[in-house]
Amino acid sequence: MLKTLAGLVAELRAVGIPVSPTEHIDAAAALGHTAVEDRAAVKAALAATLVKDAGHWQAFSTVFDLYFAGRRRDLRLPSDVADSEDAKGGDGGGVLGGLTGEELAELLYRALRDGDQVMTRAIAAELVDRYAGIEPGRRVAGTYYLFKSLRPVNLEGILARLRAEQAEAGASPMDNQLANLDYEGRVDRFRSEVESEIRERMVADRGPEDVARTLRHPLPEDVDFLNATRADAAAIREALRPLARKLASRLARKRRSHRDAPLDFRHTMRKSLSTGGIPVELVFRKPHPSRPELIVIADISGSVATFASFTLQLVYALRSEFARVRCFVFVDGIDEVTELMEKADDLAEVTHSINRGSSAVWLSGRSDYGHALRTFQRRWGDQVRSRSTVLILGDARNNYLHPREDSLASIAERAKTLYWLNPERVAMWNDGDSIIGKYAPYCDGVYECRNIRQLRQFVEQLD
Questions:
Q1: For strand 445-448 and strand 324-330, is the pairing parallel, antiparallel, or unpaired?
Q2: 230-460: which CATH topology?
């Protein structure tokens, strides 16, 4: 058991979940007080000692299933279930193995409708036996096996039947909605059951370490913005919300810590009475700084389109955290979209409005940082104030056009602070048409920001 735990901890560290030696020791101690035959209890004990972030739960669950797979249950049906009419074919011949594909799908429909977990587990094992076609020794993640196993039963069709049957029941709209959510949960659990069954068999064939390498996937905070898939996007958006609040509080704290508070003469003299009229201890007025203003200038060109969508999400989340958030987007032209951000109910509406028409594209539709910065400086430069924090988001790839560093210098001179977040790796900076080196001297900081983890590090260093 301790060897298995060591393998699990090593894999958690490999995928990016931090596990300290002390936490490893705590997990081993927790197993000593847990009934090891109770798989759910073991999983709960290890999660309590090893997982510190809710966003890491899914990765932990996957790794746990690999290293503590075993045989989760005896997949043979109990005798009372095996003898039931549902488990038999129409002519009463045999258990699940004797059913046709259509009969198995119908049996699954009834089991999901009735919430029969024993039957759905048995059907999951039968589907994998019959359709997965698992090839011993083949180093794959099992996605195709899952597709082949589920295709004959058409889960979407079963879910549609369940919804239609519920609609015909004549229940209230609220009851229908709750029932449909319950059915969706049952279908999702069945899909996970089939996936777990496939994973168990691959582990039995190749071992947990080898399977883990094929299943390894970066945590949401380590997914590159520029390479994020649709599935990754939701997790990244969830991680952005708390970061927005933290970013606002850090910038406000930084402003307070750098403000020179005036001397409170009256309170200083009053305090000096205890020392014979000698002002040994000076008293300063408590600063009451106003909430900072944020100006975001974001590149939305094709090369950083995915990054731009997440930066807009960040700006959208920041609206309530600053006294004023102004947002500008550019390609070779530049346009302010602050009003869109303020009026829109969700980010999708903002994105649609920007795509429908804006001045962000001026001439060629290719990134021109120089023209965009010069236009910003001429049109809005006088509105940048000493309380303004300017955040520029982009890869600084200028298609070999004039950089106009003087425009950025003018903006930086008027702003309180100016930061640049670049979604490219540092090794790619100043290579080809990248001119980040020309802009860096005018910034208070230039940071590689390829993923949520690096964005969090940027926020943390603002102290």
A1: unpaired
A2: Rossmann fold (3.40.50)
Taken in order 341, 347, 350, 354, the sign of the CA dihedral is positive
Nearest to 418 by CA among 451, 366, 373: 373
Residue the block writes with tokens 């003018």: 410
Phi, psi of 70, deg, nearest 5: 55, -145
pTM over 0.70: no
Give, to the nearest 10 degrees, the angle between helix 39-50 and helix 2-15: 50
Paired strand residues for 172: none
pLDDT at 254 over 60: no
C-alpha 137 chain-centroid distance = 33
CA 355 – CA 347 distance, rounded (Å):
12
| Residue 218 confidence (pLDDT) above 70 | no
* C-alpha–C-alpha distance, residues 251 and 259, integer Å: 12
From the list 360, 417, 361, 425, the residue with the least C-alpha distance to 388 is: 417
* Runs of H (alpha helix) within 115-172: 117-127, 143-150, 155-167
Q: 388-393 and 334-336 as β-strands: parallel, antiparallel, unpaired?
A: unpaired
User: DSSP alpha helices (H): ranges in 142-289?
Assistant: 143-150, 155-167, 173-206, 208-215, 230-257, 265-272
Q: Write down how long the chain is.
A: 463
User: Of 292, 352, 287, 310, which is closest to residue 449 (Cα–Cα)?
Assistant: 310
* Chain segment 20-67, per-residue pLDDT in tens: 999 999 989 998 888 887 888 888 999 999 988 877 887 888 888 778
Domain segments of the chain as ranges: 2-67, 79-217, 230-460
Band of pLDDT at residue 90, cut at 50, 70 and 90: very low
d(CA 391, CA 383): 15
Q: Do the Cβ atoms of 198 and 142 come closer than 8 Å?
A: yes
Calpha distance 314→322 (Å, rounded): 13
